[in-house]
Amino acid sequence: MIGRVKKLFNTVFLIEIGKGLALTLRTMLKPAVTRQYPREKRKPFAGSRGLHAMRRDDSGQKERCIGCGLCEAVCPADAITVITAEGPDHEKIVSSYELNLLRCVFCGFCIDACPVSAIQMTPEFELACTSRKDAFYTKERLVKIGDKYMGGKG
Ligand code: SF4
Ligand code: SF4
Do 7 and 57 fall within a single domain? Predict the structure, then answer.
């Protein structure tokens, strides 16, 4: 009975509409949170998952990747292709490393799986491109990104 009276009271005096309007007014008085991109950019934050980068090894002469293929195996989107070959001293070399950003879902599994922390993520999030080719990141491109964001160091 009390519930029905309360409901009737709310209906007659438009209480819920009044509450909604009050909330709207309160929100209108708060400063806007919309950023005027690209003039205003969000600052990078710890743990942000942006474009991948490849670190250099301790000598700084070549990529840190050892071609184990764990990142390729763990990637749920099949975005990474690692091809290895035999080097001049019968050592294993990474002849090709390719990341297809069109497939990547930025889950970060490849970063977690890498045993030598060769592949990392940067805060770079402006990844728009006008051709499919630009979305394919080769080993050389990834090393250049590593140089830019990590000074090529581990
Ligand atoms: S972030 Fe995830 S989807 Fe992207 S390449 Fe790494 S494992 Fe694959
Ligand atoms: S980036 Fe890391 S996980 Fe991927 S192949 Fe190279 S060493 Fe292995």
Answer: no
Torsion of the alpha carbons at 16, 17, 22 and 23, rounded to the nearest 10:
70
**Ligand 2 centroid to 71 CA: how many Å?**
5
C-alpha 124/C-alpha 95 separation (Å) is 26
Ligand 2: which of 119, 120, 145 to mutate, most ligand atoms within 8 Å of CB? Answer: 119
The pLDDT confidence band at residue 116, using thresholds 50, 70 and 90, is: very high
Q: Which domain holds residue 8?
A: 1-30
DSSP state letter for 45: -
C-beta of residue 51 within 8 angstroms of C-beta of residue 62: no
24, pLDDT greater than 60:
yes
The answer on pLDDT for 154 being more than 70 is no
In 3D space, the residue among 125, 113, 120, 127 whose CA is nearest the CA of residue 147 turns out to be 120
Answer yes or no: do 74 and 140 share one domain. Answer: yes
> What is the C-alpha to C-alpha distance for residues 55 and 31, in angstroms, rounded to an integer?
41
pTM: 0.78
Q: Is the CB of residue 65 less than 8 Å from the CB of residue 94?
A: yes
